[in-house]
Design brief:
By secondary structure, the protein is mostly helical. About 45% of the residues lie in helices and about 10% in strands.
Length: about 180
């Protein structure tokens, strides 16, 4: 009796099928229009996928697929790149998504503003102790950019709300995503 050989396909083929099957971001659950593939926390660029020619069978892919996820560009940028330590950007974004009724585009704006500000503060090597929750806007005033200052202030106020809420009820701001 001959044993049937398992069908093998290149990893790139499995990934193309996987990418097409994804309809929601693995983190924020937003419907995906453009998919970013992430492997163990690393973004895989679309031009690298065709070079992934390692042959594998369906069973091997089932195991390997647990290491892959599909994210929207915004979440992949947040989750897969080094974060500065001034602000809890990931927690803040999650809080805005889950605990407020703010539009997604506004959430993106707040998060981008805080990330830029945090990167700027890190670049200037300012001490972390400078940031006190109650007077955040006043303490950071000298380092706010000359343009769009009001947008940065609004983002800082929302961040202060996040800090107040998370200090009062830490259980209310926990991850609801199955992969994080």
């Amino acid at each position: 009796m001959t044993r049937q050989q398992a069908r093998t396909r290149p990893l790139s083929r499995y990934l193309k099928d996987f990418k097409l099957a994804q309809t929601q971001c693995a983190h924020c659950r937003k419907p995906l229009q453009r998919v970013t593939l992430v492997h163990n926390g690393q973004v895989i660029k679309k031009n690298a996928i065709p070079q992934l020619e390692r042959p594998m069978d369906d069973h091997t892919w089932q195991e390997a697929s647990k290491e892959w996820s599909a994210m929207c560009r915004f979440c992949s940028d947040l989750w897969c790149h080094e974060q500065e330590s001034w602000f809890d950007i990931l927690g803040f974004k999650q809080y805005l998504f889950e605990q407020t009724n703010i539009r997604i585009s506004t959430i993106h704006e707040y998060v981008v503003r805080l990330r830029r500000l945090g990167n700027d503060l890190s670049r200037h090597q300012l001490p972390q102790g400078l940031l006190l929750q109650r007077h955040m806007e006043q303490q950071l005033e000298p380092w706010l950019p000359a343009t769009s200052t009001d947008n940065y202030r609004i983002a800082l106020r929302k961040y202060a709300e996040f800090l107040d809420r998370s200090a009062a009820t830490p259980e209310s701001i926990k991850s609801t995503s199955d992969i994080y």
